[in-house]
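The protein record reproduced below.
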Amino acid sequence: MTLNYIEMNTRKKKSLIILFLAILVVSCSKDKTYLSFSEFQKFSISENLTTDDPHELIQKTETLYFTDGELQSGTVKQVIPYYDNYTLECESNLSYTNTVVIMTGCGGEKATYIVNKEGFAVSCNVEESGLLRHYEFTYRNEYLCTVTETIDNTETFRMELFYNKGDLIKTTITRSDENNTLHFAPTPEKNVSRLPLLYLTEIYPLYFHKMAIYAGILGKAPQHLIQQITQENNVSDTANYSYKFSNEYIISCDIEIITGIYKSYRSIKFNYE
């Protein structure tokens, strides 16, 4: 009896040691949890846009301010050095209720978003200089999939976004004077800072909704960053992206834009505080 007890007790101890080591290995091998840009109080995007013409140098800084992960306001400062450092400044503010998010801009524009129970906007009215634009948004797996714009009860724009395993791979744009398809190649690196794609914050009409994109109410960020954008049936027009990382955060992005024989360059830096 004593020997059996000792043997059983020893086996139990060995089993506990093995279990502890297994837990330790799993814990150590688990992916690190990265902080989203929105979990900082202040996030800045600074960039230089240059071409071969020095007249066209533009320096721009966008600063976003968050409280408990919720975007409260944002400022934009744009400087054109060639024209005696001509400067433009703008501020936007957001307010939230359970089903409505309101964004007011420095130009007097007002965007009212209706959000669903998941916190994503399903529609928006933008009032600016007496003009009313209406937008509708749809999602799939929490990624933005369609954007439609209606002015004076007439649909003027439709954009569809296609994904593969959480990465944007294609967009199609349809409007009265344009039908355009773009293809996207994702980077090997993960989008550890969960940044929105710069492309989506700058294309018409989503640049009207840049603050909503950074606020996270127009779907979640893709799994990976963009490495290249190409236009269907026009391989001479491309945009190539490269990134730098520090302390597991994305700190910069360089973009080379090729349009036929012309090239322009963008150098963008991200700062987290």
